[in-house]
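User: quick one, fold this
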Amino acid sequence: MPPTRPTVSSTPPWSSPPFWIRLVGDGVYGVPEANGTWTGMVGELITRKADLAVAGLTITAEREKVIDFSKPFMTLGISILYRVHMGRKPGYFSFLDPFSPGVWLFMLLAYLAVSCILFLVARLTPYEWYSPHACARGRCGLLVNQYSLGNSLWFPVGGFMQQGSTIAPRALSTRCVSGVWWAFTLIIISSYTANLAAFLTVQRMDVPIESVDDLADQTTIEYGTIHGGSSMTFFQNSRYQTYQRMWNYMYSKQPSVFVKSTEEGVARVLNSNYAFLLESTMNEYHRQRNCNLTQVGGLLDTKGYGIGMPVGSAFRDEFDLAILQLQENNRLEILKRKWWEGGKCPKEEDHRARGLGMENIGGIFVVLICGLIVAIFMAMLEFLWTLRHSEATEVSVCREMVAELRGIILCQDGARPRRRRAGLRSGHPLPEERLPRATATLSNGQLCGAAAGEPEQLAQRLAREAALVARGCAHVRVCPECRRFQGPRRPARSEESLAWDRAPGGGEPE
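Assistant:
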């Protein structure tokens, strides 16, 4: 591992190698004092208290004047270390993240507004009112409008889900409302789809600064470097305007933003709103061991680490040759990977898509299950409501429930006759229905209908309408305004229609 403090190697005058290894006394790398002396490792090399300084000692022109350096064994630059605030991890309802809560609210309001306007416009325009009977089109005063309140609420849902519906606008005004709603949903769905993958697969990091210029232009985040290190000297001697402003800030800031060691700077980054300026090698080393740290921007300069020694040292050529050999056989890179890679954090350059798990999209399954439960509950209510209000003419609830369950299990055809209680067919007459009717002469010359206001049995009315269907006018109910009209060609008579004709009074055949 890299040393936690600068170290020097000393050779006693009465012995030969191996070397004695000890920590430097003041714990700094070395900076010049006002009287011309140097502190730290550089000072001990100048006074020859040490023969070698093996550490992350940066090669600078100022140090090169007073000591000798070996060839650089590692290249680096000044970088910014800052902590990250991880965004909210994907959850069960992460599929709602592409839009903010405000957007979802406005989408709901837009849906309700379009539904109400569609209902109003469809009621106002005359082109949405039409006759439901094809045979009596233009002759009957009975007109219908397909845009009821329920259909007006359902039609935008079909457009939003891109599924459509059987309801088709007829008037130009309703088509205009439909067109703008479809265009709106197209943009909304496209935007949602484009952002959904990113929100589900990427755990976003919140970093308020992105470069050294952003750091220099703000005052909220404090920043500093190691006191007495090469990074401090870099800002102190720089002529670049941005770096000069940063040096003036660090020099005048109280309490001091300088730290005594790399470990102190990293701890200050993690525990306060502080950005640490340090060499990129140390930056990478600590980021590999703490996933809450990140590097902001690129390198501020380029330099290297070298082994320091007194001027004219006999070890210089030997160390230069050894470093070149280690670089050629890639030994230095192997050693760096061994000691630098912590293995605790994923590689920053790995942006491959990850598969989504239930923790990402489990919420949509919850929505689906809730919707199915609500649908089943509503179907049961509709079933019980219908049977409760037709107890006088229909079968019992238990019998109908058993029949329906049997049909579901056996996958029977959906078409079935209406089941009635046996006692109702013989003992109880069907209720009378008084309807205004008028006579009408069909194309075959037969007179249909009776005088207006005449009471008519429900069974007789059903028989009469069924006979009209058999003769070619499907789903036609004769209105007072309809005097006569030309019906379609008479189809072939079926046995059922003949049975209706033979029944006395148009009654129900046995």
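User: anything notable?
Assistant: The longest strand covers residues 78-83.
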